[in-house]
Write a structure and sequence with these properties.
It is a single chain. The protein is α+β, with helices and mostly antiparallel strands. Helices cover about 20% and strands about 30% of the residues. Strands 3-4-5-10-7 form a 5-stranded antiparallel beta sheet, with helices on one face. Strands 6-9-8 form a 3-stranded antiparallel beta sheet. A two-stranded parallel sheet has the order 1-2. The longest helix is centred in the middle third of the chain and has 17 residues, at about 50-65.
């Protein structure tokens, strides 16, 4: 997927930049379906970027510092997406459940339920960027208050599901 960071592929003064949340959600959605995401950032006539471009790229970079293992070298895994959660998998067969937070959602939910995606083959779950305890209970990820009230990043939270050995 190729997409400009503003409504235009070339620089135009005073264009509105897409929010970091939308850009991160698009990245996750595209990768969960096996694609690549190319984000166009057009330079000004001086060959530099506007401050807003740097702000968006820094926000994406901050998110990637914590969650990049769910993106790089991953491939799709069925059902790709369920509700607000996208899935990716690495060659080691560990799966990442990436919860896409809504606009005003600044803390994690207490529970993420799944109907299509089965958790029965996973013995442990971790929230990337956090040491808080997270539990698997049948068809749900249960998130403790410690994790809910102290999210490791903004916009999308990544749960690493470790295979039962």
């Amino acid at each position: 997927t190729c997409m400009p960071i503003t409504p235009s592929w070339s620089y135009e003064p005073e264009l509105e930049y897409k929010p970091a949340r939308k850009l991160i959600h698009t990245l996750v959605d595209v990768v969960a379906k096996g694609g690549n995401f190319l984000l166009n950032v057009a330079p000004t006539a001086d060959g530099d970027y506007e401050p807003e471009a740097y702000e968006r790229l820094n926000e994406i970079g901050e998110w990637m510092k914590i969650n990049s293992e769910a993106i790089y070298n991953s491939h799709p895994v069925l059902p790709y997406k369920e509700g607000k959660t996208c899935f990716t998998e690495l060659p080691d067969e560990n799966v990442y459940a990436i919860y896409l937070a809504d606009e005003n959602e600044n803390s994690l939910p207490a529970k993420i339920n799944f109907d299509k995606f089965s958790l029965r083959n996973y013995s442990k779950v971790e929230l990337l960027g956090s040491s808080a305890e997270i539990k698997i209970n049948k068809n749900a990820i249960e998130i403790t208050d410690a994790a809910r009230n102290n999210p490791p990043c903004k916009y999308a939270w990544v749960f690493k599901l470790l295979k039962t050995k």
